[in-house]
TrEMBL record:
Name under which the protein is recorded: GNAT family N-acetyltransferase
Source organism, top-level taxon: Bacteria
InterPro entries for the chain: Acyl_CoA_acyltransferase, Dimeric_a/b-barrel, GNAT_dom, N-acetyltransferase
Coiled coil segments of this chain: none
PANTHER family, per database record: [RIBOSOMAL PROTEIN US5]-ALANINE N-ACETYLTRANSFERASE, GNAT FAMILY, PUTATIVE (AFU_ORTHOLOGUE AFUA_3G00765)-RELATED-RELATED
Database matches in SUPFAM superfamilies: Acyl-CoA N-acyltransferases (Nat), Dimeric alpha+beta barrel
Length: 295
């Protein structure tokens, strides 16, 4: 997500949708994304800004009052709001505003990385939270490794493998990071043109727990090289030193010897066996529970 910078001099116009959500599910996010995709093809469209939180904002910018009003009354806009009244919104407000002046600043750095998001250099790659411009790397990864990863993951429908879903996932990764609820660190090749591995530190809980869960995957042709251990070792160190996470929990199916070896080498200790714990590839599978304690 970027800050909108208008190619037009003021005045220009904005349609602002502010809302409080009862339910922020995947359908709401997909519909919002499709709404933005539609707006981009409408006459007079200039750009958009979006933010989430207790109150969410979706702002689209338009060249003229007429084009802004047309978008405000667009049948798809009205349809999404109508559906939202039944399923998503506690309340919302849709406003048309005129922008009379604006002041802008942008740092001279052109890097897609900012100080808010980690960029960790490892011996064989770059460990980072993906930027929206890198969604293609995630798309390539999930599609190229689809058959290899299937026995170790939940059943996926075909929508999971589309570029739009991957872009949505990247946006969620960045939002979760900013909200402090999770950190998805992807290991990229040194020139950052290929995704090698994926690690997800999810369900971060603060206070008396200071803990999270860990899931991960690795390309088939990178197996047996120590790359997964390299990525996880750097990620765990980041979680410990920068986010004060003191307990990381991970589980694996008893037959997954490679995953067991990786966790053991990283200092995870077995804590028990959970029967029929997760539904993997359509089957409820037992999992061995492990944790690394860093208190």
């Amino acid at each position: 997500m970027t800050v909108f910078s208008s190619p037009e001099k003021p005045p220009y116009f904005a349609i602002i949708l502010s809302s409080r959500l009862i339910l922020d599910d995947i359908t709401h996010r997909i519909m919002t994304d499709k709404l933005l995709g539609l707006a981009k093809g409408e006459p007079g469209y200039l750009g958009f800004e979006q933010s989430s939180g207790e109150v969410e904002f979706l702002v689209t910018y338009w060249q003229t009052q007429q084009t802004a009003e047309a978008w405000m009354k667009h049948s798809m806009q009205c349809r999404v709001l109508s559906i939202g009244e039944s399923f998503w919104y506690e309340e919302y407000s849709l406003k048309l505003c005129e922008i009379l002046s604006n002041t802008e600043f942008k740092t001279p750095s052109l890097s897609i990385y900012t100080a808010r998001f980690p960029r960790i250099v490892t011996p064989r790659g770059i460990l980072t939270v993906l930027h929206e411009s890198q969604a293609r790397l995630l798309h390539d990864y999930v599609n190229q490794e689809k058959v290899f990863l299937a026995p170790w993951e939940p059943l996926r429908d075909e929508g999971y493998y589309t570029f739009d879903t991957c872009l949505l996932r990247v946006r969620e990764m960045r939002r979760d990071f900013l909200e402090g609820s999770g950190v998805v660190l992807c290991l990229l090749s040194p020139n950052e043109d290929k995704m090698l591995a994926y690690s997800n530190y999810s369900n971060i809980i603060r206070g008396v727990f200071q803990a999270c869960n860990l899931g991960y995957s690795l390309r088939e042709n990178e197996q047996g090289k120590g790359i997964m251990q390299e990525a996880l070792s750097a990620g765990i160190e980041y979680l410990k030193t920068e986010l004060d996470i003191e307990r990381i929990q991970a589980s694996y199916m008893p037959r997954n010897a490679k995953s067991a070896a990786v966790l053991n080498n990283l200092g995870f200790e077995k804590e028990g066996l959970a029967r029929k714990y997760l539904k993997i590839n359509g089957v409820w599978e037992d999992h061995i529970l492990t944790a690394r304690i860093m208190r």
